[in-house]
What we know:
The protein is built from nine helices and seven strands; from the N terminus they run αβαβααβαβαβαββαα. The chain is an alpha/beta fold. It has one domain (about 25-280): SGNH hydrolase (Rossmann fold). The N and C termini lie far apart (about 60 Å).
Amino acid sequence: MMKKILFAAVALLVLTAATQQKVTTIFVIGDSTAAKKDLSKGSPERGWGMALQCYFDEDFIRIDNHAVNGRSSKSFINEGRWQKVLDKIQPGDYVIIQFGHNDEKPQPDRHTEPGSTFDANLAKFVNETRERGGIPILMNPVVRRNFAKKEVKNDDDEALRNTTFKDGATIKEDNILKDTHGLYAVQPKKVADSLHVNFVDATRITRDLEQSLGVEASKKLHMWYKPGEHPAIPDGKQDNTHYNIYGAHQVAKLLADALCQEIPLFTKYRKNDEPCKMEQANSTK
């Protein structure tokens, strides 16, 4: 009897260990477009990294989102956030690296130069991930919803949370999406090519999404709400950078598909979209 109990216990331990070994972590590092959000006050704002788990089987793929509002590749390193991710990476884990929105900013604690310090930081993430036995995936930044006829000053994206609907009402738009990233969208691919790294063209993917929806329908992806339209935003908002629940899911779904194309192994763990559609349906917009 004792032998049977011992055998069963050993078998359970082996089975548990085998199950644990199947789980691969995909870390996400980046800025507010991917980041976790404070949901305590009912805000519909979401980062695409919050929605990504919905598209992968959590029994095999675990998304660990470390993206943070307002961070550039420089500040993410200097604040010790990258070291915290490094300490968690296990051999076989993946790290999605996506910066650019805040590297563009002039503040010295965030600004980097494409072709120079920006590239060096991306290479640091890649090389140190590999030193831990991890697999890096470079992404360029998602686009802003910028259909403005005239060039709009690229202010701090984080300041958009303090604006209301009327603050953006005077912006005149046409049907052509305008680029705001310049070389910050180009250099990640160059770094990926030079270091032989997996690359997902998030700029192209989200540009095509925004452009295909057009001026009006693309607003539904973002924190664009008229006064009284959402209880958490009584004065409304016109934020063309950050996603709402629907937008985060649309982008996460497209990026999940792109990840599967780039790394075919992920295809085995790509989930049916139905639960994700239900989550979107429960949102206010």
